[in-house]
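Give me the fold.
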Amino acid sequence: MISLKESISAETETDDQLKGKYFCRNRDCKPGISTELLRRWVYNERYTLYDDGNSRFFTVFIRNLSREDDGRYTCGNNQKWSRDVDFRVNKNSSSCGTSVIRSAYIGQTITFSCEYEHGFKTHTKVLYRVHGDAVLVLNSSQSSQSSEEKFILSDSQKDHFTVTIRNISAADDGVYLCGVERDRADKPPSKKSNTHITFIKEIELKVLRQITSVQVEAYISKSVFITCEFPEEFKENKKFIEKDSSQKISVDEQNQWIPHDKVHVFDDTSAGVLKVFISDLTAADEATYRCGVNIADDHLFTEIKLKISQGDNFRESSESVAVIGESVKLSCNYPEKQQLIKHICKENEEKICQSISSSEKQRFEFSDSTAGVYTASISNVSPRDAGVYWCGAETRHEHLTSVSLTNKHQLTLTMPPVIGREGDSVEIKCPYDEKHTEEACLRSGKCFTKDAQNIIRSDEDHDKNKQTQKLFCRGDQPNICIRDGARVSSNNRINGRFSLTEEPSAGVFTVKISDLRAEDSGKYWCAEESSGSFIFTEVQLHLTREMTTSDTKRETSQEKAEMTTPDTKRETSQETEKPEVTSSDTKNETKVQETEKPGEPRYAVKLFCV
C-alpha cells in the first residue's frame, strides 16, 4: 500500500505573534488543531502540531492522507496573522513510496535508500522520525555531513538519496520518513513560501536485542557444537539460527534434530536451549551467527563470531579396539593456547556428536594435558560403548557453551579368546545392549545397505522396529561377515552345528557350536542390528587337537620312564620272583595273612601251596 504524508510550515511575521497557533479547514476552521504551547508537540486525531518559537515557524503533520483531504486550509495565530493553503492529494504520484521494514542489531550500522522523481533532484532531502506521536527532523541534505554523526544523509542528485544510521541502540527503534521539500508548484520552496514536505518512503526499524557476543574458534574439516541458553520464560518460544543477518534457519519443530545441509538444530524446550551442530567446517563457514528466540514482535539473540582455524597438528582419525569389561585409552589433541575444558562426545545415528550422559560420565576420565595432548579413558567397557567418538575443547560463557572437536576415534569391541577342543562343543556368550536403537553405526560410522541387511534377514515380515536382531557370523571384517551371511540369527536359531539362544535377563545371547572342527578356528562377530544400524563385538575362536591312540601311548611311555627309580626296580624284581604254579595247585589255595614290621613297607601277598 502506498501512503503519503505531508508536513506544512508557515513563517510568522512579528515577535508579538508567537503564541496561539492553529491549523484548520473550511470557514468554521474545523476539523483542525491549535496550541498555546511552545516547543511541545500537541495532537488531535490525525493532526500533530509543533511550534518551534525560535525558528519563527510551526509545523503541522497529517497522517493517513486520503482524497477527502483535498481542499483549502488556513494556518495562523490567534491574533491578526493567517495564511491560506491549497492542498491536493495525488494518489498516482510516483513520488509516493512504499513502507518497508528493516531489522538491525544493537551496535550495527545500516544504510537504506530513498528514491525520488527526477524533478526533485535539486530539492532539499530530509529525514524525519516518528517517535510516539512526535515527528522529529533528524537531518537534511542542506546540513553539513560528518562521518561521525549518528544520522548521515547523502544525496546523489540522480534518483535517490541514502540514509546511514550508525551504532544502532535500542532507542533507535521506530518509524523513519524520507522526504523532499517543495512548494505548491513542485519547485524548491523560498524562504517566505509555504513549505510542503512530501514523504516518499516510510522505514520501520526494528532493533533486535542481543544477550551477549562471544567468539568461538573451530577447525577446518572438523565440527563445532554450540548450545545457546535463553531466559526461562522463553523456553517454549520458537528459536532460530542466522548467518550474517541474511541466511536464517527457523526451527519450526521442537525436541528433535532438524537437518539443514550440514547444519543441524535442536530446540530443547525442557532445558530452554537451542543446540546447533555444524559439521565438515570450511573457511566459508567463518562468519557472524545469531542464535535467537522469537519474543512477540522482537527477537532475543546471542551473537557468535565463528573463527575457522587450520588445526594442522590434529590427527584426522584413529581406530581403537577394547576388550569388553576392560579399559581403553583414547589420545586427544588440545589447543594449548587457551584454558579450555577437556571434552569427549559420541556420534548418534545422524552423526551428531552428543555429550556423554551424566549416568555414564563416571566411567570416563581425563589425564592431565602435556604438549597439547590429553588421554580420555573409558573403564568397564560394554557393548553400548562401541561407536564413533570425538575429542574436543569446551568453552563456557554465561549464556553459551561451545565445543570445538579435534580428533575422531572409531572404537570397536572384542572378547577374550575362546578356546575349544576338536570334537567337543563350545558356547560363546555374546553381550548386547537393549538400548541399541539409540546407538550409532559402529564401523567407520557406516550403516550397511538394504541389500546387506536382507542377507541377514530370513524372515521378510520381521518388524525391525519392535526389537533388535541378534546374529553371529564369520569374517575378517564386519562387512565381509554381513556379505557372507550369518551362521545363526534371531530369525534362524539353528543352522547345522550352530545354534543361538537369547537370554534377555542376563543381557547376552549364547551361540553353541557342536562337533568342533579344525576349520572352525578363526574370527567371528557377535552382532546386533536395529533400524539398519549394527554393533559388532569381535570373537577369536582357537581350537586344540583331540589326542589320538598313538599320542596316548607316547605319553604313557614318557610317564613310565619318569617313574623308574632303584626302589621301584627292587619292587618289580620281588614281584617277578614268584613260584611256578600249576593248575592243580589252585585246588588247595591257602591265604597267608599280611605280616607287618615297624618301619618296613607293607605288602599284600597271595601264596598258592600244594
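The chain has four helices and 43 strands.
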